[in-house]
Structure formats: C-alpha cells, structure tokens
Amino acid sequence: MIFNKDTAEKTAELLLQINAIKLNPGNPFTWASGWKSPIYCDNRLILSFPPIRNYVRDEFSKNIEKQFGKPDVIAGVATGAIGIGMLVAESLGLPFVYVRPEAKKHGRLNQVEGFLQKGQNVVVVEDLISTGNSSLLAVEALRAAGANIKGMAAIFTYGFDVADQNFKNAKVDLYTLSNYQNLLNLAVAKSYISEKEEKTLREWSVSPSTWDIV
C-alpha cells in the first residue's frame, strides 16, 4: 500500500529522472533470480542526488510517524537500505540498526548490527520489494532479537501478489513511497514509454516468473 498518491507519483518521476528505474521492454534485464524483466530498479542511486535523497528522507520521516507512530528504533535492511535508513533515523532523532542477510560467521556472530533492546518498537526501512522474502528475513531476525515490528516502509514495490501474501502471512504492514502501478501511469503520462511498451510492462507484472519477450 502506498502512503499517498501524490507522493507515489512524485517519487516515481524522480526515480525515472535519475535512472534509478530503467524501463526497457524491448531488451529485458535478467534478475539474479533468473527472471526476465522489462524493468530494473536500483534505488541506491538516490543517495548520489542530495535533493532527491532529502525528499525521500523527508517523505519517509513524516509518513512513518503518521502511519506507525514514532518508533523507538529505525532498522535498515542491508545493504540497499542502510544509507536511507540512517538518514530517516537521523531526521526522526532515533537510534539506527541494520540487518545482515545472515549472521556473521565470526566475532559476535551478529545478524542485527547496532544496539537493540528487547521490546523496542521498530520500523524497518527497505529500498525495494519484489517477492518480499529477503525483507521478511530481516523482520524474522529482528523479532528473534526481541523487537516489536510496527511495520515496514519501502521506497518502491513491484506489487506482486506473492509479496502481498508473504507480508500478510508474516503479519507485517507494508507501506511504500511508490509502486509499479503509479510508475506506469506516470511513465505513460510523461512519454517515457509508448502505449505498446506499457502493454508489455503490464503483461509482465501479471506473471513475472514466466514472462519472456516474444
């Protein structure tokens, strides 16, 4: 679910402007999962554009507090959400921790890095949601450390049904600054893509795991 429509449209436009989101229906990308995709999203680019990273930080900060109440801690999912998560925590005057994909194999064997007390209310910040599996592994690690998860806030989601079901099963409320639907609407309105390309992009979103260009 998006925080609000105006933010969703503005965020989509900014991501397209800096090529954090690339749309290429005629020459699809291959994801790490092996899926063929006419879209690629790299929200790490946001950190290199101060006005845009400040916009994302401010929208996160005000909407997190409005939707979830002010938490005790902000947690970022490594590695993509560490930078923006720190900015949000700084803006809200809150402690920050981050969650590794898995526990370290040496030292203190930490998966959650930073100071976190049992029972603290945590909002998790993520950069991108596809199936939600890796994001929810971070939630599991935080819960295992004793955190009370208030919800997750992400920059962008592809809006896959499997992700919706995964978050529902995990009992985690997910809100995003923008999503695939608003991105496509904006891309058509601003002539980033043609109507034919829009059709391809919408077809992909119905069955992304089996889609391929024809």
Automatic annotation (TrEMBL):
Catalytic activity reported: orotidine 5'-phosphate + diphosphate = orotate + 5-phospho-alpha-D-ribose 1-diphosphate
MF annotations from Gene Ontology: magnesium ion binding; orotate phosphoribosyltransferase activity
Required co-factors: Mg(2+)
Positions of 5-phospho-alpha-D-ribose 1-diphosphate binding: 100, 104, 106, 126-134
Assembly behavior: Homodimer.
UniProt record similarity statement: Belongs to the purine/pyrimidine phosphoribosyltransferase family. PyrE subfamily.
UniProt name for this protein: Orotate phosphoribosyltransferase
Gene for this chain: pyrE
